[in-house]
Amino acid sequence: MRSPAAILVEEHVELSGIVKDLEACLDPTDREALRQVLPRLTQRLEAHRRKEEIFFHALAGRVQAPTEVLDILRREHGSEGRIVNEMRALLSAVENDATTVTALGAHLRRTIEWLRDHFWKEETFIFQDADSYFSEQERRALTEQFETLSRS
Ligand SMILES: [Fe+2]
Ligand SMILES: [Fe+2]
After folding, report:
1. What is the distance in A from the centroid of ligand 1 to the CA of 104?
2. CA distance 2 to 72
3. Is 58 within 8 Å of 138 (Cβ atoms)?
4. 36 C-alpha vs ligand 1 centroid, how far in Å?
5. DSSP assignment, residue 26?
6. C-alpha to C-alpha distance for 89 and 74, rounded to whole angstroms
7. Between the chain's N and C termini, which has fewer beta carbons within 10 Å?
8. pLDDT in tens, 58-117
9. 11 C-alpha to ligand 1 centroid (Å)
10. Domain ranges for the chain
11. Measured between alpha carbons, how far is 143 from 82 in angstroms, rounded to an integer?
């Protein structure tokens, strides 16, 4: 059974692939491709964040846990929720042709940068050592919770 941290890192690989696809839609802006990529990214990001919230909650109770980093990342998850809503709003702006291409591109480039930085922080400060904070039984329980979420 894969560990919960390994699952979250694998999801970063998948999400980074989608982020790359998004980046490819921007120069020049390809509205048709954005209509495909943006919903995929928002859906996968939200599913990923639900797992991380369970994981961070479990981790926060550990004495060895890097509490300050966890606090920062949990706050960033609040921002990520807003970013996802903004991307949804942008998508309807793309549909309605109500936004300028330049504004859209600039906004999405900032979003891409923000996401890459967030993934990097999680991988560097949390996921690398995360398995050592949980017993095998706890890891298994977390992985099962992730699987239940993926099915729902
Ligand atoms: Fe996250
Ligand atoms: Fe993540």
Report:
1. 23
2. 26
3. yes
4. 22
5. B
6. 23
7. C
8. 999 887 888 899 999 999 999 999 998 988 888 787 777 766 777 788 889 999 999 999
9. 10
10. 4-151
11. 27
